[in-house]
Structure formats: structure tokens, C-alpha cells
Amino acid sequence: MEDVVLETDRLLLRPWIPDDAPALYPLAASPVVGPACGWAPHANVAETRMVIRNVLMGSESYAIVSKDTYDIIGAVSLKFHRGAFTRDDSEPEVGFWLGEPYWGHRFAEEAVAAVIERAFTVLDCVAVWACYFDDNERAHKVLERLHFIYEQTEPWVTTTTGKHARHEMCLTRDRWPMLSGERGGRPFAMARY
């Protein structure tokens, strides 16, 4: 697996390492972050380390790091053929979350845009899917700003935090603003290997 680092104006998206656990834990322990994404707040650094090893260290999964402070501020990933609503490996699901202190600065939009750009221009994907739960309007707004279109709602999806309505959205390559010229040909991210 290649170690890809994506760089945006304000962020570095880099692979996870187990030693990120102490920095990630305070963000993942928040009672408002995980439940909005369908997972319970982390109980301790050991749990965070286990999640990094078993979930976050996968292919196309990135720590979102502030270029100003080099602090980890969240996570973003592309999941291939694991989502219930993705059709095949050419249509991954993007997942993302930010620590509560970093809400309201459009960091999520910047990070998600970078991995979408990679999906369409490097990984040759034809669509990217995403979902959000009823109580996560912030994620919904991020997806709308990135031109995702509502597809359907699954009314009773069970997660570790209970049953939720899951709203599924899709962005096709032909609608991606970078490829359609909306950003004037300027990429969201530059990859460093």
C-alpha cells in the first residue's frame, strides 16, 4: 500500500499510525461527535488505538491534520465496496468527521473535496456516495456544498448508538465542479508520495 499524503490550502491528509491515538482520543471521546456518525464515544486511549489499527489504517483512510498547528483534527476516508448502497469498487463511499473544536471552519468540506478529487482523477471512480443520519445536519450541509444529490433514505439503520434514519447521497464524476471547470482548473489537493 502506497503512503499518499494529500495537501490542501489548510490541511494535510496523511495515513494513520497507532501513535496518533493520544492526539485523536480527546476528539473521539466527545459525546457529540461519534453518535452523530453512528459510533459511541471512545472510552480511553486504548480503544482509540484499536480503532486506528482496525479501522482507520485501511487503504484510502486519512488523518486530517491542520497545516498551522500539525494537530489531528478529524478523519476522512474512501471505503470501497463495503457500503450497503455502493454498487461496486468504482463507486466508493466517503466518510468523514471532525473534532468539535474544529467545526464551523469548512475543514470537513476541504478534506472531503480532496479525497473526492483523488477518487475521480487518480482512482478513476465514476461516483462517490455518502450518507448522514438525521441528527447530523452539519454533514448534510457539507455534502450539499460539494454537489452531492439526495438518492434515498433507509429509515431504520442500526448502529452502535441505536436506530437512525440514514440519508444517502451521490456525486457523479460528470457533476464534480473541478472537472466541470467550476474552480477554474485549480485542484483542491496536491498529492505527495
TrEMBL record:
Pfam family, one: Acetyltransf_3
Record-linked InterPro entries: Acyl_CoA_acyltransferase, GNAT_dom, N-acetyltransferase
Organism domain of life: Bacteria
Keyword Transferase: yes
Keywords from the named record: Transferase
Domain N-acetyltransferase stretches: 11-174
Gene Ontology MF annotations: acyltransferase activity, transferring groups other than amino-acyl groups
Stated name of the protein: GNAT family N-acetyltransferase
Taxonomic source organism: Pseudoscardovia radai
